[in-house]
Amino acid sequence: MDGTPESEDVANALPPMRALATFTSGQWADIFAQSAEDTAKGCKDSLHSNLVEFLRSEHLVVLTGLGTSLCVIDRAGNKPAPTMSDLWNAVRGAVGIESFEAILKAVRHPDGDHNIELLLSRCQTAEAFEPSQLIRDFIRVAEKTIAHRCRFISDNLDLPQHESFLRRIARRPTTAPRTRIFTTNYDLCFETAASRIHMVVVDGFSHSIPQEFDGEYFAYDLVRREEDGSAPDFIPNVCHLYKLHGSVDWERSTERIRKRQDTDEPVLIYPRHSKFESSYEHPFIELMSRFQAAIRQPKTSLLIVGFGFNDKHITQPVLSAIRSNVGLKVVIVDPFVQQSPSEASSVMASLIAQGDPRITLISSPFEKFVPLLPDLVSETEQERHHARLRRIDL
């Protein structure tokens, strides 16, 4: 999980959707014109052309974070995906106020800093130097609470943004490599959305029961073989999904990782400063190595959306690839990229100012960016048919 700024005051103060690229002359420009008289001032057409070329790259890689889940809204109008502050409050409620305050005091957590990642990092450090049952119990409850809060997907929760996003990025010509989606999120948004639009997700797990993880499965593909004996064809709606920080439905069984929906001990890299070290454990080292290899390939487009660049073990490979891979195009989508840019975003803005045409920064939340993505492959009649059936619950 990768945290991003989440203050309502900051969110309400967001400027109009803007882009920064060489096609905006290295200056932040409004994507949409503010009035009918200022149509020439919007950069929507230039951005569209840029995104069309971007999506047509030989290799398409997507990196997503918390920002892609925060747009999910249930039928009561609530947002079930937890922010980092939500996790702080949830853990505080789970352990009780008195016990929580005792933990803060025991690990000398800074007053007023409601950072769950920092708190768990301090607990881990304290436990390493002075083992304590109090801290050990707190870590166990905190991790269980975090995993529980990330299990918010249900059958009656709509995911229109994720479905539209997958249609636009994952339906590619069958002659092109499959789209590879890397995410730091624990939740099941992408898997569920893909299932609803009849898209096949290759996630490194076997198709037999129990489903077990093996990186070799990423080399497999799916074809359709008709009964008339004609040559098999690749199925168009297939994408790869790599969950860099684990998933709420992963469970460790001896030395194997298996899928289990109701597991009490999911395999996750929890929010704390040891994420870098944890990424070198199985199966995370397999997933990280594939991410690094993917963004170092020539003729590659990397779309980064909803990711706050707070995870150094992911940020540094991205920056390294930008420096060394001249065939890498990068689009970063983040509602705070203009107002509160990360160190990595600032580096990319500087490259744009120096005339680097490979990079585009877009100040926008995930749900508003999705409609801007060109839909290069039209929706098939079969997809429309499945959508109609789902709407009437047949």
Features:
single chain, 394 residues, alpha/beta, Rossmann fold, 14 strands, globular
Strand content: 15-25%
Structure class: alpha/beta
Number of strands: 14
Overall morphology: globular
- Average pLDDT, rounded to a whole number, is 90
Rg over CA atoms, rounded to whole Å, is 22 Å
Element pattern in H and E: HEEHEHHHHHEHEEEEEEEHHEHEHEHH
User: For this structure, what is the CATH homologous superfamily of the largest domain?
Assistant: TPP-binding domain
Helix content: 25-40%
* Poorly predicted runs: 5-12
* Alpha plus pi helix count: 14
**Number of self-contained structural domains:** 2
> What CATH architecture label of the largest domain applies?
3-Layer(aba) Sandwich
Classified by CATH, the class of the largest domain is Alpha Beta
- How are the strands of the biggest sheet laid out side by side? 2-1-14-13-12-3-4-8-5
What CATH calls the topology of the largest domain is Rossmann fold
